[in-house]
Design goal:
Blueprint (H helix, E strand, L loop, with lengths): L9 E4 L7 H10 L5 E5 L6 H11 L5 E7 L4 H10 L5 E7 L4 H7 L7 E3 L9 H11 L5 E3 L8 H10 L5 E3 L8 H13 L7 E3 L8 H11 L5 E3 L8 H5 L9 E3 L8 H10 L5 E3 L6
Parallel strand pairs: 1-2, 2-3, 3-4, 4-5, 5-6, 6-7, 7-8, 8-9, 9-10, 10-11
Helix pairs in contact: 1-2, 2-3, 3-4, 4-5, 5-6, 6-7, 7-8
Length: 285
């Protein structure tokens, strides 16, 4: 592929579990125009392969999006930060060695618009995430911290204060978030005249309910296009009715919202012409 298409600028490979370090080393010498690399499950690539590619890509690399990799470590991330200062998209999802020291190294990346640090094997800590958001949040448009179950409302507070351009927020499986904390988050965004969010994923927020949803709809109800509140078990039917006023809503996940009724669902469908998909898994409508 690299030999036949040397002018590739963007490369996205799914399920590339047989990819080896030798391949990335070959790309280092052949794909001299590559600006964005996205790989899912390249778990056989060794550290030397990553470092060879990073060295070669250097300042032209704008996107480095990797999911499921056990060998990317602090040394690799440090080299990435030093060699590729123009990164605007960074995904380090399901990275086996991701920890607070790695996040501290990432704080030098000042041009990030997309940041995904979801699902490390051990949850990231509030203090490390807050420090990183303070350093790189100013231009972020998309942030994914899903499946970091130890993160709390303190991380939400940092996002509200330091991410003025945010459009997409993915916080699924953050089970320590509180109803009061999420409500405060959206109220803070509203007070700061933050534009409404377009994508919001707060799946499995078991303690989230009416206050959180009311504040969310007040701040982002007119702009949200994709919304997941799966698992908001105690959210009342009256609060859920407010979803019918989301004029741009296209995808909605209401799974395991146990107070959802046929009448509320019909009201949402009647009021919103833009809805294309509603998930109601786990309901007894």
């Amino acid at each position: 592929m690299a030999n036949l298409c040397p002018n590739l600028e963007r490369l996205h490979l799914q399920l590339c579990g047989q990819l080896m370090a030798a391949t990335l080393k070959h790309w280092s010498t052949t794909l001299k125009k590559l600006r964005r690399l996205e790989l899912y499950a390249p778990f056989l690539v060794r550290k030397d392969g990553w470092e060879s590619f990073i060295d070669a890509a250097g300042e032209r690399l704008e996107g480095f999006l990797i999911t499921q990799q056990p060998r990317i470590d602090l040394d690799t991330i440090t080299k990435l930060v030093e060699s590729c200062p123009n990164l605007t998209e960074l995904r380090l999802a399901e990275i086996g060695l991701l920890d607070g020291a790695c996040l501290a190294a990432l704080s030098k990346l000042k041009k990030l618009k997309l940041l995904d640090l979801s699902a490390p094997p051990h949850s990231l800590k509030d203090e490390d995430v807050v420090s990183l958001i303070e350093a790189v949040g100013h231009d972020l448009e998309s942030l994914n911290l899903s499946s970091n179950p130890e993160l709390t409302d303190a991380t939400l507070d940092a996002i509200a204060q330091h991410c003025p351009k945010l459009r997409e927020l993915h916080l699924r499986h953050l089970v320590e978030l509180t109803n009061e904390g999420v409500a405060k988050f959206f109220k803070t965004l509203q007070e700061k005249n933050h534009p409404g969010l377009h994508v919001i994923d707060l799946e499995k927020g078991h303690d989230l309910g009416d206050d959180a949803l009311g504040a969310l709809l007040s701040q982002s109800g007119k702009t949200v296009e994709q919304l997941s509140i799966l698992g908001w078990r105690e959210t009342t039917a009256d609060a859920l009715e407010g979803l019918g006023h989301c004029a741009n809503l296209r995808e909605l996940d209401l799974g395991w919202c146990r107070k959802l009724t046929d009448f509320v669902l019909k009201d949402i469908l009647d009021r919103s012409d833009s809805v294309k998909l509603i998930r109601v898994w786990g309901e007894s409508l």
